[in-house]
Amino acid sequence: MTHKQRWAAISVAIYIIFVVAAIVIGFLDPSQIGLQWTIFWYFVVAALCYYFYFKNVSYREVVYYATQLGLHQDDLKAMVPNLKETQDVPNPDHPDFFSPFAKVPINVVNVLTDKLVPMAKDAGIPLYR
């Protein structure tokens, strides 16, 4: 199973757990909160699960390429212009299992991915899967 498939399975499992909990516990019962709000919350949680998948895959992709290229956290910080004090970059030497939601924003990960993929292609590193 590839990393992307693993994160997709985790995201789908989280959504299924939410749906089962909503049905069993009844906190999204349409007769209590209305059909529109029930549908709204199912879509919101689906979007959050997709964001969880996308962010973790992007985070792992940066860690993979940085590790393969022998880059460290300071090298990655130098690649991101205008990094705020509250923002951070992934640490390839000590990656978190889950991408930190607040500390490592998606725009930082996207900038790093855009810069690391061409470097990895030039170095002959296989694509992240």
Explain what you see.
There is one protein chain. By secondary structure, the protein is mostly helical. It has one domain (3-123). It is 67% helix and 0% strand. Keywords: Membrane, Transmembrane, Transmembrane helix.
Structure in a nutshell:
The chain crosses the membrane at residues 7-28, 34-54. Keywords: Membrane, Transmembrane, Transmembrane helix. The protein has 129 residues and is mainly α.
List keywords for this structure.
single chain, 129 residues, mainly alpha, 5 helices, transmembrane, membrane, transmembrane helix
Task: Please render the helix and strand layout as text.
Layout: H1 3-25, H2 30-33, H3 35-69, H4 73-79, H5 106-123
How many domains? The number is 1
Order of helices and strands: HHHHH
What Rg, in angstroms, do the CA atoms define? Answer: 18 Å
The tally of helices reads 5
Proportion of residues in extended strands? under 5%
Class per helix and strand makeup = mainly alpha
Major sheet attributes: none
Helix content: 55-70%
How confident is the prediction overall: mean pLDDT? Answer: 92
Question: In total, how many beta strands?
Answer: 0
Unreliably modeled segments: none
Q: How far is the N terminus from the C terminus? A: 9 Å
Assembly of the depicted chains: single chain
User: Which outline best applies?
Assistant: elongated
